[in-house]
């Protein structure tokens, strides 16, 4: 693992300057000759009908580079987290999850900031932002943990039987857990969640992700990241707290 990949975020530390979307790492699945152009289009132009010229492109990786380069003039950039944005990200966090399919009540800026700081204190914590000019419009972060740490932190209110179910179901590895991905409601449907998640998922492996059945993260996990559900409503093993939850893994 390259040293640049193991960035531990600390409040007050400055990080590299934002990069244009054209510099986003191309996921490995795009380079696969079996990847259809329609999948690349769906990721980078969600909700927009695929034109005939894109269907005729011979290689999916060429189409990826073509569509990314078209964003060069956009004000939206992908950046590592910078502490000066923490209050704005806290407000964005509440807005991102208040609607369908999460319907989570706002926590308030102060509580979210506490939560963010706690998340960023974890091992190998890495966070990315989508910035429209100087305005955060999307975020994604993750960190490394073991199955036991995952069970204790994400199921802290559950009994020992529920925690043991999680630990026993997950292979005993150190995972890079994609903890949070959120997009401003006014910017949803543009593929920013996919871009942030795939960029984050390229940093460390194996990957662990928890979401809910109706979340757009399901399509990203399955179609873009090639993750496998090990706990889900349609499987024998279901989440002990919420049967609508889905837990995905992707092993090296």
Set down the secondary structure blueprint:
Blueprint: E1 19-20, H1 28-31, H2 37-44, H3 52-56, H4 60-69, E2 76-80, H5 86-96, H6 109-120, E3 126-132, E4 135-145, H7 147-154, H8 160-169, E5 175-183, H9 192-201, E6 207-212, H10 217-224, E7 228-231, E8 245-250
Parallel strand pairs: 5-6
Antiparallel strand pairs: 1-2, 2-3, 3-4, 4-5, 6-8, 7-8
Helix pairs in contact: 2-4, 5-6, 7-8
Written overview of the protein:
- The chain folds into two domains: 59 residues, no CATH class; 173 residues, Aminopeptidase, CATH 3.40.630.30.
- Helix content is 34%, strand content 20%.
- The chain is built from ten helices and eight strands.
- An eight-stranded mixed β-sheet has the order 1-2-3-4-5-6-8-7.
- The protein starts with 18 loop residues before the first strand and ends with a strand.
What's a concise summary of this model?
This protein has ten helices and eight strands. With 252 residues, the protein is α+β, with helices and mostly antiparallel strands.
């Amino acid at each position: 693992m390259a040293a640049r990949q193991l960035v531990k975020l600390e409040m007050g530390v400055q990080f590299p300057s934002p990069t244009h979307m054209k510099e986003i790492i191309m996921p490995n699945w795009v380079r696969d000759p079996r990847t259809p152009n329609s999948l690349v289009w769906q990721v980078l132009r969600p909700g927009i009908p695929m034109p005939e010229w894109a269907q005729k492109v011979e290689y999916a990786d060429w189409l990826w580079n073509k569509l990314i380069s078209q964003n060069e003039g956009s004000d939206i950039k992908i950046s590592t987290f910078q502490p000066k944005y923490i209050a704005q990200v806290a407000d964005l966090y509440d807005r991102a999850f208040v609607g369908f399919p999460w319907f989570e009540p706002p926590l308030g800026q102060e509580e979210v900031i506490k939560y963010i700081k706690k998340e960023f204190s974890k091992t190998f914590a890495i966070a990315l932002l989508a910035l429209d000019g100087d305005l955060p419009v999307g975020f994604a972060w993750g960190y490394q943990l073991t199955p036991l740490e995952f069970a204790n932190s994400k199921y802290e209110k559950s009994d020992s039987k529920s925690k043991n179910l999680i630990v026993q179901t997950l292979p005993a590895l150190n995972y890079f857990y994609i903890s949070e991905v959120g997009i401003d409601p006014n910017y949803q449907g543009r593929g920013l969640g996919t871009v942030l998640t795939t960029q984050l998922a390229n940093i460390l492996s194996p990957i662990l992700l928890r979401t809910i059945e109706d979340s757009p993260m399901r399509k990203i996990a399955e179609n873009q990241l090639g993750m496998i559900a090990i706990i889900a409503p349609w499987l024998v093993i279901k989440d002990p707290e919420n049967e609508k939850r889905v837990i995905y893994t992707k092993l090296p």
